[in-house]
User: Fold this.
Amino acid sequence: MLKKLAAFSRKFFFLSQEEHDPVLEAEEMEALRLTFKSRYHSFKLLLAANNRILEGMGDIERALQGNESFSMSFVQTHSTAISVNVFRMINDMENIAPGKYTALKDCFVAIQKQIDALLGARKTIVDRRLVIPLAAVNSDMTDLVGGKMANLGDVKNRLQMNVPAGFGITAAAHEMFMQADGLQREIDRLFQVAGSDEDRNLDLVSSQIRQLIMAAEVPEPIYLAVVDAYSAMKAENDDQEIKMAVRSSAFGEDAENSSFAGQYRSELNVGFSQFFYYYKQVIASKYSVQAIAYKLSRGFRDEDIAMCVGCLAMVDAIAGGVIYTRNPLDSKDDAIYINSTWGLPKAVVDGNDLCDLFVVRRDDELTILKREVQPKEYHVICLEGEGCIRAATDDEIANQPSLSDEQIRELADHAVRIEQYYEMPQDIEWAIDDDGKIFILQSRPLQQMEAVLPGPELDLKRFEPSLIVDGGINASPGVACGRVFKVAKKVDILQFPEGAVLVVEQALPTWAPLVARAAAVVSEQGGFAGHLANVAREFGIPAIFGVKGAMAKMRNGDSVTVAADLGQVYLGNIGPLLEWTRPEPKLMLGSPVYESLKEVSRHIIPLHLLDPESREFAPQNCQTFHDITRFIHEKSVVEMFNFGKDHSFSERSSKQLHYRVPMNWWILNLDDGFSHEIHGKYVKLEEIASIPMLAFWEGFAAIPWDGPPAMDGKGMTSIMFRSTMNTALVAGVKSKYADRNYFMVSKNYCTLSSRLGYHFSTMEAMVSERSGENYLGFKFKGGAADFERCLGRVHFIREILERYGFRAVVNGDNLSARIEGYDMEYMIGRLKILGYLTLHTRQLDMIMGNSGLVTYYMNKLTKDIDTLLP
Amino acid sequence: MDTLRVLIVDDEDDFRETIVKRLNARKIQSEGAASGVKALEVLKDKDFDVIVLDVKMPDMDGIETLRHIKKLKPETEVIMLTGHASVEFGLKGMQLGAFDYVMKPAPLNELLDTIGQAYNKKRGLIH
Assistant:
């Protein structure tokens, strides 16, 4: 097909106009259309990829301002997304101009290598240990034991705090497990069979994969390594058996803004005889429906996530909970928030009961600012055999504070020290055993938000009659409205409507998948330290917990407004509340994650190829992804232009525009540029469906031409005038000055090659609802007057174009102007301007010597244009 | 807490036996039945609070077994075990009186939560 195209170019290149018109055969026309379609398709894909890259770079630049927190996974996700799209652009470019820019691939590989080295993305695991005792773990070992265990290693070994004995089962072990018996291959196959991300049945795939994992044997080396580690623990424990907590410690889990909260398994109080059953359950939870959906939505690659597993001696806790070293809901509040309950911390995390909250000031005395003691009717305790149970709390202690003042201060002290060590706010899980000893079970970065207080103008008095909930706990700030949908069972999840207000009795992690789809969440139980609260904050979904009687008070289908910051729910849509918006969150300059992003961004963002005309503008000079992107974008537009330029066509294969009278404009429909199949010789304006062409034409035909400037060449120019505007041109009558105007159109695309007298211009436009793909290019050359005057006109036109937002460059007597990325309405306006200028700048070269007239025309033209624009 | 009695109905021996063992380790009195027919036989002599019922079984499938159970012991709560959840399936099971569903391979704590909820419903703690 490409050979054919080249043949067209040779045969029908414009310059041969003096000869009789070439005639394209029907078959050749069809080939031209097909080529156009395929290139057009590649071009659209290329632009889409270009946009995603620009968006991604925008995200990175915004992150580098340091106002928002982000995680390593943000860095990973964004650099991966950008590199995938750069690669796509290279391939699309290859389709558009085969073999022309192959050097780009080498640049890409070189840049990718540098980024990979920084991110250790596809790093093969060097340390092949399958199990590492916690006593030997530190935070440099994230790649071995996962973030959760690596952090805990620091707390134990560097901060010397009490952490239960234990070990991590490594990424190497996970790899071994998944490779054994071709498990991973089979999983990949199941994914493949299930089809694309959009249409696969997630439930089915998830179920199949997890059953596969549960049925797999744990490879013997892992088995032996775990037995060894456990035996060592047992030996330290006077040879007594130890019950374990088996917890996920996956890559990416517990990073600052990708919590994976509640998506992976952990199992408490497991006897060693059952250990491997639960190990497999944790591994399988990587493929839970929620986890798969989450990974998709957050752009994690399945193969990048190694499911490391942490095993800790079970602490039979008297009390436990979660400390936030700062207020997650208010970045200006640096007090320490201790959530606490009787028994295991699980009750706080799972959000099915109320818990105590103690707030401590960060001063030398660690002053206790607030004690909110809640009725703790249930608490979670270890069963004698295995597992744990939610048991009723004895009446006499249910309403007692679960911590003494001394314990509160001791916990606050731990919190301050851990935070100082990580130099970031932390979310810390802790437990106190029956000797009163504090154990740290987990510490991970805490995401903080900006508090938004209502301004004095917010007067809610008149809405008081519709206030249905007041005094709830703000678990995730914000305001939203939607229809109530109560969820009590898993089966309700299946029917949950997008954008509803999720109302539940308990803030269980089970509901996490619904949060992202909900407008807001209201729960009877739970506090702001639970998994579900984390997820709500992560997704920016307002949530109010601790709302007694919510299930009874709120009716399915009722429209309500949830104002989480106020702890209130109103019936109906409350306008003033919904207008209340939230500003930017906090700083994270200088954090290790920030530094990584900065390093990586050096290979992505800087732009070295600035001037397309310079000799440096070449593939081998691309040092960053931005360079490649810029280069391809520039060249792709040029290549697409060439399509219009290189492929002329005869009047016979195209239709002649009939606008009141037959015009000397010829139109080739490339795809869907006509509203229906046209059989005759003419196409009427109203039969044209090409948005850009119609816009151009509107500008062209809007204001009649005054005729040529008065001062010069009347006889000649009047011929030109007639030939363009007035044309009942008889075919075959071709003067030297005849105009040749060719449109190639599809619905959203159009090229124009126009030869008006002595000058030549091309225009290419893509205009659709997708602003990111919109662009408009215009080239203009030549004139009948002497070079000086031509140049004068070129600059004259450039000045007008620049006034209206075009980027225009003049090179010799060549003008090229471009505009891109604006919405449809704007693009249509610019096309009208081009249409107008095409008609009204003709022969203006003749007056370029006369500055008075130049000013006159400048004023007239811009005034006219202003009437064309909305 | 009174002793909660659970019947696990599934033709997959491994799965059934493991779950029964794990539940018993948690002081939940449970036993297994390897088919729908066997489950109905057991039910003639014994009462259970909650039945966990696999949808896909040879001879008599879960839905059919559910119909019989609801005729025989309407007060027993039934949790369907399924390899995939769809709205139609969910509605059908619930129309026939099932309490809820859990997806295979049914992580233990998820199954326990649902069993707990079903038990609460049976005891009239929730509606």
Summary: DSSP finds five helices and five strands in chain B. The first helix of chain B runs from residue 13 to 25.
